[in-house]
């Protein structure tokens, strides 16, 4: 651990392409003075863990079934995060909803990437392909992705950045998810830079929405 670098924790559940984007951005110096201190997964087979392992990044699977409640599970996560002096927690494809204890323990220090233009197509149960399926069903002409702070209400925290993507009549769930994910990676890096180094006043974070689309 290098104490003059910002310490990021990345919480994952799946493939981890966003984690890879963070790792690559650190290597290419797009993300400066930053290191991934730890990757935490709630799924044993998350490919993201393999990515961390390959890169020599500390990684841990915490088994939810070993805890009676989400509070107990998150207490374990809080303990792990505290021992690593984390400056920012990035939810990158993490499928568990955080307890208020975890959110309060890292007030304004948790960000999430979501594959739609929030507040549209967000909230409990809206994740992965379900988001793109709902987008296609609704007939909207554009979708996108959002980086936002995590607050108590799911997917409703202040928005840091959004990127719009047109929805074509030929789009399917697969084409749309591929296009959106392709844009997520750079948006997440920009969002991390802002959250870490720009000292965003959380109440005003939504202003960035206007400036960055
Ligand atoms: C991304 O679409 C992200 O927006 C959502 O989960 C997906 C994770 O993808 N929260 P990956 O695991 O980073 O490849």
How would you characterize this protein structure?
The protein is α/β, with parallel strands linked by helices and 213 residues long. Helices cover 38% and strands 20% of the residues. It folds into two domains: 1-107, 3-Layer(aba) Sandwich (Rossmann fold); 114-213, Formyl transferase, N-terminal domain (Rossmann fold). It has helices at 17-27, 47-54, 70-83, 100-105, 129-138, 173-197, 207-212; strands at residues 6-12, 34-41, 59-61, 88-91, 110-114, 142-149, 159-166. α1 crosses α6 (173-197) and α5 (129-138) crosses α6 (173-197). The chain is globular, with a radius of gyration of 16 Å. The structure holds 5-O-phosphono-beta-D-ribofuranosylamine. The site of 5-O-phosphono-beta-D-ribofuranosylamine (GRF) has 12 residues, from α1, β5 and α6.
List keywords for this structure.
alpha/beta; 7 helices; Rossmann fold; 38% helix; 213 residues; 2 domains; seven-stranded mixed beta sheet; binds 5-O-phosphono-beta-D-ribofuranosylamine
Helix proportion of residues, in percent? Answer: 25-40%
Q: Architecture of the largest domain, according to CATH?
A: 3-Layer(aba) Sandwich
CATH topology of the largest domain: Rossmann fold
- Helices, by number, come to 7
Tell me the CATH superfamily of the largest domain: Formyl transferase, N-terminal domain
Based on helices, strands and strand pairing, what is the structural class?
Answer: alpha/beta
Quick structural summary:
It contains 7 helices and 7 strands.
């Amino acid at each position: 651990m290098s104490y003059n670098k910002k310490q990021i924790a990345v919480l994952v559940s799946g493939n981890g392409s966003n984690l890879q984007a963070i790792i690559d951005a650190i290597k290419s110096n797009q993300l400066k003075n930053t290191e991934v201190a730890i990757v935490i997964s709630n799924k044993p087979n998350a490919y993201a863990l393999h990515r961390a392992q390959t890169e020599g990044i500390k990684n841990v699977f915490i088994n939810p079934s070993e805890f009676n409640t989400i509070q107990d599970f998150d207490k374990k996560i809080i303990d792990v995060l505290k021992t690593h002096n984390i400056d920012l927690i990035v939810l990158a494809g993490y499928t568990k909803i955080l307890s208020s204890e975890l959110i309060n323990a890292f007030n304004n220090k948790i960000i999430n990437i979501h594959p739609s233009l929030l507040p549209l197509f967000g909230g409990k149960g809206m994740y992965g392909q379900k988001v793109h399926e709902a987008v296609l069903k609704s007939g909207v002409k554009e979708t996108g992705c959002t980086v936002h702070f995590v607050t108590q209400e799911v997917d409703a925290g202040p928005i840091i950045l959004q990127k719009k993507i047109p929805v074509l009549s030929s789009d399917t769930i697969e084409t749309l998810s591929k296009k959106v994910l392709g844009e997520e990676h750079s948006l997440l890096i920009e969002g991390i830079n802002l959250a870490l180094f720009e000292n965003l006043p959380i109440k005003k974070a939504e202003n960035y929405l206007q400036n960055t689309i």
